[in-house]
Specification:
The complex is a heterotrimer.
Chain A lengths: L1 H31 L6 H17 L4 H23 L8 H23 L13 E3 L2 E3 L1 H23 L1 H11 L1 H6 L4 H23 L10 H15 L3 H22 L2 H18 L4 H4 L6
Antiparallel strand pairs in A: 1-2
Helix pairs in contact in A: 1-5, 1-8, 1-9, 1-10, 2-3, 2-4, 2-8, 2-9, 3-8, 5-6, 9-10, 9-11, 10-11
Chain B lengths: L4 H22 L2 H23 L7 H19 L3 H23 L5 H20 L7 E2 L2 E2 L6 E2 L5 E2 L2 E5 L3 H23 L1 H11 L1 H6 L4 H27 L1 E2 L6 H14 L5 H17 L7 H15 L4 H13 L4 H27 L1
Antiparallel strand pairs in B: 1-2, 3-6, 4-5
Chain C lengths: L3 E12 L2 E12 L3 E5 L6 H9 L6 E6 L2 E2 L5 H6 L2 E4 L11 H10 L4 H14 L15 H14 L4 E5 L7 H14 L4 E5 L3 H6 L3 E6 L2 E7 H6 L1 H8 L4
Parallel strand pairs in C: 3-8, 3-9, 6-7, 7-8
Antiparallel strand pairs in C: 1-2, 1-4, 4-5, 9-10
Helix pairs in contact in C: 3-4, 3-5
Classes of the chains: A mainly alpha, B mainly alpha, C alpha/beta.
Chain lengths: 288, 355, 238
């Protein structure tokens, strides 16, 4: 019984963290058809922003939920203006350029923070379920993910901004013809996407020792989650995070953590072979 | 591609012979060997990406697979000939299976990128986790993140005690690059190569002409992997140790950067790009003011933005502009490059005015 | 009796709830010229794509020279000796006209024969002046003509053309009609077309599609005089 509870919490946590690490990439890809391969480094920067802010005496929750997203969002804005803007409509070129950015950020972070592991302790302590110890911080991550999904749903469904965003997602040329400047929409989207990446990196920072190359651990997972999700933003995110989270955890528990990761990646390859356009190209069609 | 084959063969051989003699005056042969190995690796991606239109984010997987195959086989066999052959065949076979899965599933662009990237990661993670004594192939322990050291290095075929090392190894590497370069040149002149270029230009049109583009892309992909595997086998001999780092995404990224900087759609570009950037990295490694990774990243960003066609086409272009009348073929090619550049500029302008 | 080279039986294609093509029974004889017409969304292009292998029909069969080819891949159908031109001009833009046509010829011929065949096609279509030029730089009409050259270089016995006259100047259209007549010496031709002027100029048997099904099949003059067809094209008033 206790074991079941632990497994359920762990699976939920795995799904939630996949949603969290993929959200920023999904927003940018869904709206702009741009794959940001520097996504992992945006998360890494979010982590460093949090740690730096905490060391300067800022409350850890403010640092994670406000400071980090803002800083990384602004970095994203600069990147969009300087680089991405010139490459719209050239999918492969943007991937290459953002891959270059990812290396650039790794190098910059190494120069600033050094090639050592830094970290902060989780602000919520763990507790016991029967014989098992559960990390209390995992619940925080699950809650943040739920709030994030609800927030995205609200913005897309109930606000004017969301309507414009959905229109742009469907037909950016038509949105432009109706007088909404895609340039500004893209700018705002990239800011939002980067901020989400920063948030994810910040929230996950207490769980991992942070090094400049930390981003690499996230990018592949985020990448497969978004691509396997397919065209619908939220339904895609939830369905593929669900599939990969469950598969990953099942193998982690039954074999080893590494095999959990490997199983998740193999599942992604098989899934893409069967549904080349992603899960939501076949199921949940037309949902958000 | 139409010029007389014999003439190009002789020119290439002459330039090659001059280079093999002259280069050691500038750089020591140990460093030259690795530059050549990287050149070979660059050419492997340059072939499938530049001429076949297949962007593989995991070319390092075949490189690493070649290196590991060599190491494992060398530990087991103790003579280097068969391990070298296996280091070409195993990656080629692996690529043929992977390619068949992707191309028959009609995956392209990003999806191709995802799968090749993910497969590289799987290999990396798997090899990294094989530190335990239970991971053994024959008598070779995989060794996890420590890698496999201490295997038999290259020897004269049939004479396991006569090692090929130092200057001799440099000549072997040069021979490999020259041989593969000529092979690629021949391949691109053949019908197979011309059809591959056709598929790069328009996959659907080629299949409507009656070509099985899926099978052809799979074969080309496997050839690229074979070349990368050869580079991996040579690398194992150069480094005398293989580690999981060979499979890393960073390694894959570097191969892509070599091709972009050198120039896609050329044979020489990826080789020069690889050797040049690897040498630059070697030089930069001797200072500690600016981080190496940062410069690599910056180079990639700048090239994608400002010189997406790479250095070699740009130089050919410049050459033709100055001596246009005399070099007829160069003129035609440069014309193409300029038009491609204007097309790019127009596209960019469109993107900007779009915004 | 002339051989039937293309036949479909009860060919049906559904997209979700939409029936784009329903129970089409179609027959074509060797060296016949046939035009497929009908208003937008009548199912002409869907039918075309099912025959060329670009789509796999939901039900029904396609036969070519007596063999069932339902669900074959486009390259397999093309390899039978079927020349296909899609609606959007599909050529190899980075290569020259010569190279485009050569690649098509090489599919069925040796290198030397392909060289000869390419020269022959270029002469036949009077493409000599633009043979060495990169295709991406040529005008729309010229690229359409090169695509016809690609189709011809395979020496097909069946040619399927989707809107060959679309977006062409009057002069180009006349030339196209000439080329098609020339082709009929060796092959059957099926043309999907909107341009009635063009269809009249090549005067032929016409199959009219309406709402996914075949409405009628007759000579172009009788078809155009038919009140039902006029209804379909001009609305329900007449």
């Amino acid at each position: 019984m206790d074991f079941t509870v632990v497994v359920i919490v762990e699976v939920l946590y795995a799904v939630a963290s996949l949603v969290l690490i993929s959200a920023g990439l999904a927003v940018v890809f869904g709206m702009m058809k741009v794959i940001n391969l520097a996504h992992g480094e945006f998360m890494m920067l979010g982590g460093y922003a949090t740690i730096t802010a905490v060391n300067l005496g800022v409350n850890i929750f403010i640092a994670m939920l406000i400071v980090a997203p803002l800083i990384v969002g602004l970095i994203g804005l600069v990147v969009e203006r300087l680089v991405i803007r010139h490459l719209y409509g050239r999918l492969v070129d943007t991937m290459l350029a953002t891959w270059g950015l990812s290396l650039l950020f790794i190098g910059a972070a190494t120069m600033i923070f050094g090639n050592t592991t830094t970290g902060i302790s989780a602000p919520i302590s763990g507790f016991a379920v029967g014989d098992y110890q559960i990390n209390g911080y995992n619940f925080f991550i699950i809650i943040v993910s739920i709030v994030l999904i609800l927030g995205m749903l609200f913005v897309l469904k109930a606000t004017r901004l969301g309507l414009i965003a959905r229109g742009t997602m469907q037909r950016s040329d038509m949105a432009a013809a109706l007088g909404y400047s895609p340039d500004r929409i893209y700018m705002a989207t990239f800011f939002a996407g980067s901020a989400l990446s920063g948030l994810a990196g910040a929230v996950l920072a207490p769980l991992v020792g942070l090094v400049p190359t930390s981003g690499g651990a996230f990018i592949a997972k985020a990448f497969i989650t978004v691509i396997a999700g397919g065209p619908s933003l939220i339904a895609g995110l939830l369905s593929s995070a669900g599939i990969f989270g469950v598969i990953g955890q099942v193998f982690s528990f039954s074999v080893s953590a590494v095999m959990g990761d490997v199983a998740m990646l193999i599942a992604a390859v098989i899934l893409l072979r069967l549904l080349p356009q992603g899960v939501t190209a076949r199921f949940f069609k037309g949902k958000l | 591609m139409q010029g007389p084959w014999q003439k190009e063969l002789i020119t290439t051989l002459l330039i090659g012979l001059a280079a093999v003699y002259l280069l050691p005056f500038a750089i020591n042969t140990f460093t030259l060997s690795i530059l050549l190995i990287y050149g070979l690796l660059g050419l492997s991606l340059g072939l499938i990406w530049g001429f076949g239109g297949i962007l593989c984010f995991g070319q390092a997987a075949f490189f690493g697979l070649g290196a590991y195959t060599y190491a494992i086989a060398a530990v087991n066999i103790g003579e280097s000939t068969l391990p070298m052959i296996l280091s070409i065949l195993v990656p080629a076979l692996f690529a043929a299976l992977l390619g068949a899965m992707m191309f028959y599933g009609r995956l392209a662009d990003v999806y191709l990128g995802v799968i090749t990237l993910v497969v590289t990661l799987i290999l990396f993670k798997f090899i990294n986790s094989t530190a335990g004594p239970e991971y053994v192939i024959g008598t070779a322990r995989l060794g996890g993140f420590n890698g496999i050291p201490g295997f038999q290095t290259l020897n004269i075929p049939g004479r396991p005690d006569d090692y090929i090392w130092g200057d001799s190894f440099y000549y072997v590497c040069f021979g490999a690059v020259l041989g593969v370069y000529l092979l690629v040149t021949w391949l691109l002149r053949s019908s197979f190569g011309r059809i591959a270029i056709g598929i790069r230009e328009n996959d659907q049109r080629m299949s409507l002409m009656g070509y099985d583009t899926r099978a052809r892309k799979t074969v080309l992909f496997a050839i690229g992997a074979a070349i990368a595997g050869l580079a991996g086998g040579l690398y194992a001999n150069w480094a005398e140790i293989v580690t999981p780092g060979l499979f890393s995404l960073g390694q894959s990224a570097e191969i892509i950067i070599w091709c972009i900087v050198g120039g896609l759609g050329t044979r020489l570009g990826p080789i020069l790009g690889a050797a040049g950037l690897a040498y630059l990295k070697f030089l930069l490694g001797q200072q500690s003011v600016v981080d190496n990774t940062m410069i690599t990243g910056l180079i990639l960003v700048l090239f994608v933005l400002f010189l997406p066609k790479g250095i070699v086409p740009a130089v050919v272009n410049l050459w033709a502009a100055s001596f246009g009348r005399r070099v007829k073929r160069g003129g035609r090619r440069a014309g193409r490059a300029t038009r491609a550049a204007t097309r790019n500029a127009a596209r960019q302008e469109k993107a900007v005015s779009h915004g | 009796m002339v051989e039937t080279i293309l036949e479909t039986q009860n060919l049906t294609m559904r997209f979700g709830g939409v029936v784009a093509s329903s129970n089409v029974n179609f027959k074509l004889k060797a060296r016949e010229l046939r035009c497929l017409i009908g208003p937008n969304g009548a199912g002409k292009s869907t039918f075309f794509k099912c025959v060329t292998g670009l789509l796999t029909p939901t039900s029904g069969q396609v036969f070519m020279r007596g063999d069932e080819v339902t669900g074959w891949a486009p390259h397999q159908i093309a390899a039978l000796g079927v020349g296909i031109k899609t609606q959007v001009p599909s050529v190899l833009d980075g290569l020259s006209a010569y190279e485009n046509i050569w690649l098509s010829a090489r599919r069925f011929l040796s290198v030397t024969e392909a060289n000869r065949k390419t020269d022959e096609v270029i002469t036949r279509l009077s493409l000599g002046a633009i043979a060495k030029a990169e295709l991406g730089r040529l005008a729309h009409g010229e690229r359409q003509r090169v695509e016809l050259g690609i189709v011809m270089a395979g020496d097909p016995w069946l040619v399927l053309l989707d809107e060959p006259a679309a977006g062409m100047t009057a002069q180009d259209v006349d030339r196209m009609a000439e080329i098609i007549h020339d082709m009929l010496k060796t092959t059957a031709v099926v043309i999907v077309e909107h341009d009635m002027q063009f269809i009249r100029s090549i005067a032929t048997t016409v199959t009219v599609f309406h709402q996914g099904a075949v409405l009628m099949e007759d000579h172009v003059d009788r078809v155009m005089a038919d009140p039902t067809v006029r209804n379909v094209y001009l609305g329900k008033k007449a």
